[in-house]
Amino acid sequence: MKFEIESEGNNIVCDIISLFKDEKTNNDYLIYTDNTTDLDGKKNIYGSRYKNNNGQIELLEIENDSEWDLIDEKIRGIDNEIV
Question: Domain range for residue 23?
Answer without folding.
Answer: 2-76
